[in-house]
């Protein structure tokens, strides 16, 4: 090493540089060992710690304030250019015109898509030689003019782009920057916004929602600012051994000079305390106007590896461009984590050789009242909550997120799935439409921009080339595959751009039984992600999901499989007494309220995550979604224009119960958390109390009296259930005390019980329905067998494959108590105090096709037939017409058993009211 160094140094000083001469320095290098070099040049004599890294060379200003804005779909380019912006609104960046379009009283469904105009006057910067305008992002398509001259157009809502404005700035005085931003949904394939994403269950906020900057380089020769928004310096971990790690660092240089020149490219690696770990340099000759790429290997002794959330150690890479007189004329600084990642189809994910199951969540980039125009504080808050829950990975859905997000994820140690916004469809029309050349070229451009811009981030483990882009043919039975060739091209391109990382893809529904997906996306990318919504949009058990996973693994034995999405909607004001007592309302149903109880979502997460966690071959999973997010196609739960599948509400204020399920499983912090805390006015006296806890044992007390203690081995996946807890009339304070290795963590909830009756809304999981007489009904509960069903098809699956039937319910003033049924052969086993009761059952005939005599059943109460041979249709005289039957019962054993026993067809019941005499 020293010989090489001395030779290079001598050459550099005496004869000037030649291309590709290189030298290196490490922490231990002393001037003394340089021998003859000492006398030659103080300027290149390294101090004990190696070369001093120079001060900033570039200058830059963030153009935040002073913008004028108007949202106007009819304004022409000419009129906008002629305008002084006088009547336009004053705004600062980041900005979007869709800030209020979700979850607020102003929420619009769908949200506003159109044209936004931004105008800024600014002074020509005095500093610098080459001057660039840099846009962090402009959604979706931006046309940019400076001083009336068109700089160009950028298509793509998420990636940064730059214009060299050196020759376009005013020599003195003001400059006028005008930006037209277009977030219209394209109706044909020929429009500028007919680019990825063409669809998606999220709002595409329009505007300049990231920073705009002026950047000035100190010299006409610089690291290439024209490299698709990238930093111009690109590093990978090439190898790691016990003694050292080898980094490969490519520097792209651009000469805007009129003269050829010789330069030195120095790459220094500083440790986290700022001390030099190693420095290498190479000389290069740059012809006037040329681009050159120079690669160098840097060996870092005993490298401190980036070990995810356990140890997110980062070095700092400093790339300097040095003139022959020793002046540093450009400099790029990048944080860099030295790490190796590996995915195995049977064993999962390995980080630096250590098996690390990826516990992840999906994340969109919006916030309440801001849309996409979020601040670094918002990002810190979101990532902080993700870490608080114990997740070690995040899927940045469905598009490139901000540089700050990637930087913070790297600092926090989160392993990132980064994604190209190729979402839902690839053509207009979605099914069978042609993938235009322009669409394809743009998808490639967005992929290259994303990869180059995020290349150096330690966190990024994989490049996803798309999400559910086979979805275009929902409902169609005509085979059509306009996606496979495109995916294959994107796969090749991603590997060409970055062979150090794996590619992935989020599949929609391959091999899901009812699905019409004509293209198979398995086997295309290096690893695979599957989005599956068992127990929500389809599927009736977690076991079905497990079998599906195993079948996919068997079909693609060499492709590591992860779960890129699963989840369920939930509203923190909607509750259920028994998550099995109804069917999910998964999407807009046309009903005034799309009921999405928090308890059902928790059940889905427990079931589905349990199925995932028990499979070693799954490399990781991402719960959809960490937060509720803006989606103008939705109207569900208790909020408008929002997808409700978040583990935390859109405002980040309420952690839903399921958040604590994951926290108990993933975090090392003590968690003892009673679920159902927001369901306070309870419908039933007898309840199962569920506690999420990672304690050694949990004790539950009711109004100060211990109910019982469960040890961790009596809990499944940190779910500890105290069964048949009997609430008292009035106030009930439940306290769970977790013993975490001797440390006691208490949680308490206050519930009240204001009824002595048991009233069950059969077949539904809406709790808290009240009849016209004020009687409170709980959701379906205490049932054994049968199927919950509703009269109006509600789920997305039903919308797709079923028929809506909106025939009104007759013969009642309480139609909501008759909107669902339990059907089949079933019983209710209801805990009751001993005594005498009056029982009223409510019925109607739900089946349009049922004829008189087509459904006959009897009802037994505690083994005695109370309703023999009931034919609801015959008794009611018409379809969907209510009848009720009342009978007395005596309870002597603490329970009432009602058996519904069909002799023809299935038994049905709509509601059950049991009142104490
Ligand atoms: C998906 C999509 C995602 C949706 C999600 C949902 O499969 O990838 O964009 O938001 O389902 O909530 O339905």
Please tell me about this protein's structure.
The chain is mostly beta strands and 917 residues long. It contains twelve helices and 56 strands. The strands form 13 sheets. An eight-stranded parallel β-barrel has the order 25-26-27-28-29-30-31-32, surrounded by four helices. The protein starts with a helix and ends with a strand. Bound molecules: (2S,3S,4S,5R)-3,4,5-trihydroxy-6-oxo-oxane-2-carboxylic acid. (2S,3S,4S,5R)-3,4,5-trihydroxy-6-oxo-oxane-2-carboxylic acid (GCB) is lined by residues 200-201, 398, 467-468, 531, 565, 624, 643, 645.
Rg, please? 32 Å
Structural class: mainly beta
Strand arrangement across the biggest beta sheet: 25-26-27-28-29-30-31-32
Mean pLDDT: 91
Envelope shape = elongated
